[in-house]
Amino acid sequence: MAAGYHGGLFRGRAVTAVGNTEQPETVLDEWLAAAGEDPAAFYHRSLITVVGRSNNVGKPAVSLAYGRQAAVESVDEWASRSGRLGLHTRRADVLIVAAGVPGLIRAEHVREGAVVLDVGINQVTDPATGNGRLVGDVDYDAVAPRVRAITPVPGGIGPVTDVWVIRNTVAAARNAARQRCA
């Protein structure tokens, strides 16, 4: 994280996002627009629960959701060990999951009609073939029938991250060029 990044988020300043920071909200905004919903109104009436507290995804996702005037709750994978994860996640209108635990979120953790953004990416061994494969922190096949929208892994948030890295590289180069010319 760049110095001052989190402080800038909490103060509502424009900051250049890195890694997977703004991608879940960007995907949600695009989905809302395609569904004909006003993102601002949606955030105001929604509870966003972030599972995972990393500096790369979890904490920035909480900051960004607060900045959008949403009600926000943050939990981590330890809530699962105490049997309390579902108490938090089942209330969420939007669930952003970035805990680094394959298949952590199952159908019983998600309320009917929620929106689930899976930022996790984990390599596991497929028991049927013995080959490695990528999975998210959400059990996609179990959760998908219950929810309004869900991002797959691979192919969901990851490609958006690639675009953002390029976008931010170009923005940083432009800023550096402006500073040299000033």
Describe this structure in words.
A five-stranded parallel sheet has the order 2-1-3-4-7. Strands 5-6 form a two-stranded antiparallel sheet. With 182 residues, the chain is an alpha/beta fold. It is 40% helix and 15% strand. The chain has a single domain, classed as Rossmann fold. Strand 1, helix 4 and strand 2 form a beta-alpha-beta unit.
CATH architecture identity: 3-Layer(aba) Sandwich
Low-confidence stretches: none
Termini Cα gap: 26 Å
Mean model confidence by pLDDT? 84
Tally of individual helices: 8
Question: Strand count, sense and closure of the main sheet?
Answer: 5 strands, parallel
What key attributes describe this structure?
globular, 182 residues, 15% strand, alpha/beta, two-stranded antiparallel sheet, Rossmann fold, five-stranded parallel beta sheet
What's this entry about, in short?
40% of the residues lie in helices and 15% in strands.
Question: What's the topology here?
Answer:
Blueprint: H1 5-10, H2 23-34, H3 39-44, E1 47-51, H4 58-67, E2 71-75, H5 78-81, H6 85-89, E3 94-97, E4 115-118, E5 122-125, E6 132-135, H7 140-143, E7 149-150, H8 157-181
Parallel strand pairs: 1-2, 1-3, 3-4, 4-7
Antiparallel strand pairs: 5-6
Domain Tetrahydrofolate dehydrogenase/cyclohydrolase NAD(P)-binding: 48-175
Enzyme class: hydrolase
Organism: Streptomyces dengpaensis
